[in-house]
Amino acid sequence: xxxxxxxxxxxxxxxxxxxxxxxxxxxxxxxxxxxxxxxxxxxxxxxxxxxxxxxxxxxxxxxxxxxxxxxxxxxxxxxxxxxxxxxxxxxxxxxxxxxxxxxxxxxxxxxxxxxxxxxxxxxxxxxxxxxxxxxxxxxxxxxxxxxxxxxxxxxxxxxxxxxxxxxxxxxxxxxxxxxxxxxxxxxxxxxxxxxxxxxxxxxxxxxxxx
Length: 210
Fold this sequence. Notes:
Number of helices: 6
Low-confidence stretches: 1-13
């Protein structure tokens, strides 16, 4: 199943659900660029299970706090480097101007998200993304032009029937457009859908038989 790109917090939840199911998630995990520092979270070696993290300068974290949000059912981990940042040669690039030391906050499933970010750099993942990119245009057309986003009926059987009708209408429209292009030339590619149908009715009028 193909799913759209997600932000890092939502992406970690999607990866967690994917780990316990048979779904194949092919969307890339976006890189978090919310930090004002030159060294983003991706530059840190983080181990959630051991509650330890290592910064680009090679120093281990001095403190790890568990932050729980019960209303949102969300758990974050905050890592801090207190005294290590004082004499670090990377301080000017790593620590923001208004902070005394570097602090990062990551989600509970940060390691799964980082693994997905590493996978997106492989050639196998890029080849699989070509298949996903090819279908995105069709899904967008069905959603925006044919009402695939909303179902008019209740029940999986009726929803499936509606989707089949939508796909059939889309295929008929494409077939008519291609037929119009063959009849009146390549200029019809810039015309909307209704005009090719009008040209077809003029070029090939039906013959009535008695």
